[in-house]
Amino acid sequence: MSSAVVDSGRVRYFRRFSASQRLQHGVQILTFTTLCFTGLVQKFSNSDTLETLIVLLGGIERLRSVHRIAAAIFVFEAVYHALELGWLILIKRARLSMLPTLKDGRDAAQMFKYFLGRTAERPQYDRFDFKQKVEYLSLIWGSIVMISTGLLMWFPTQAAVILPGEVIPAARVAHGGEGLLACLVIFTWHMYSAHFSPEVFPIDTTIFTGLISESRMIHEHPLEYARIMADEADNAKVSFFPAPTQALNQIPVRGAEAPVLNSAGAVEVAQTTPLYAQRASALAPECVDEEIEAIEIDYLDDDFDEPTGTFKCVTKLG
Predict the structure, then answer these.
(1) pLDDT tens for each residue of 247-268
(2) Based on the domain organization, do 34 and 105 belong to the same domain?
(3) Beta pairing partners, 260
(4) What is the DSSP letter of 186?
């Protein structure tokens, strides 16, 4: 789930992508662009113009070498992504928010009617809309096809030992066709969504910063926003200090900024990291003693769940 954060200008943002996801996207940009360029040049190498370009780039063998290096990085990233998904699903019990549901079909139909002027209401999306799910699942399917056919072409002799010889030329056709389709989709559909759509022009920076503004969350992902607000409302339920004799704003706090006593009598604490700020109460009743030495706060920073705090009062010995 996205987690609420506050920047120095007090403008509220939500963390939408983790550092790992942003890094994967950056590697994907570099490898995919390289594979598209070197692959299409090889696919249409009979063209007089491209023959000249191939010579200028150092020859077909150099192009193939660059293509295979990019492909190896692409395969490594795909394996890493699969392992990360397995960890999130099996260990972290993350929500499978990218899987299509019946609601996605209804959303697509409603969006179609919206574009035709048959309804004034846009679909209400959760963490991902149906277009993002289609694009992601297409990437997964395309990656499986490209990696499998690419390996058959890379190691044809070994493949022919266990597979019929006809599989190799078939893999070549499938690899070229799927590669051309993938390049066209990315450089039209994805580029429009990420750059040329009026809502994000000239560029959607969310995948690079990992953050999305509150206004965009409300507009683009209202269901997810409502769920986060409901969770925050639950987490905001605090236990107040029943008139402690020691001034709470004089108690040192370990792991956070100094506490400030708000009008309701609860301690308001802000996490020191610039990406997060979270109000919290140092839990009563164990913090009522006037001989409190410190309030220990242990923040748990999770890439996919909201940050939470564990609060413990440390009393003076003797």
Answers:
(1) 334 444 444 343 444 444 444 4
(2) yes
(3) 268
(4) I
